[in-house]
Design a protein that fits this description.
The chain is α+β, with helices and mostly antiparallel strands. It has 2 domains: about 40 residues, no CATH class; about 70 residues, no CATH class. The chain is built from 4 helices and 4 strands. A 4-stranded antiparallel sheet has the order 1-2-3-4, with no helix packed on it. It is elongated.
Length: about 140
């Protein structure tokens, strides 16, 4: 044992014997032990649980739920605007696909009442053509 530890233990023993050391109170020494612990260690007070915490917890959970639902609604609207998911509002016109051919030329494949149309948008002009994807039309164009 090092000399400092030995001196420290001897000093603690001497202070305890002289009654100058802080008093240690054990919980089973009597009914007054709880108040003695509270006086020695103030943050160890025995307090009842917080009353009225349940409504606060329910309120916070409802706010989180409302925020999540709101976020999903905003996400769905943004994805519908971009054409990633189809709109459910009964729209007759949907953008099936969009392709940018150059910085000034775009091609759109539109579906109107089940029929598909190609729309070319270029420098100040727009052209539209019926897109026929039937097997005989593909053989006509492919041959």
């Amino acid at each position: 044992m090092s000399r400092r530890i030995a001196v420290g233990l001897a000093a603690a023993l001497l202070l305890t014997c002289l009654g100058l050391a802080p008093k240690v109170v054990w919980a089973d020494e009597g009914s007054d032990a709880g108040s003695a612990v509270e006086q020695i260690i103030p943050f160890k007070r025995q307090e009842p649980p917080v009353s009225g915490a349940a409504p606060k917890v329910v309120f916070v959970l409802l706010m989180l739920l409302a925020g999540g639902v709101g976020g999903l609604i905003v996400l769905r609207r943004n994805l519908q605007k971009k054409g990633v998911i189809p709109a459910v509002n009964g729209s007759r016109i949907t953008v099936v696909e969009m392709k940018r051919l150059s910085s000034k030329l775009n091609v759109f494949l539109l579906a109107v009442d089940g029929k598909e149309y190609l729309l070319l948008q270029g420098e100040g002009q727009i052209q539209i053509a019926r897109h026929d994807k039937s097997p005989e039309a593909e053989s006509r164009h492919g041959a």
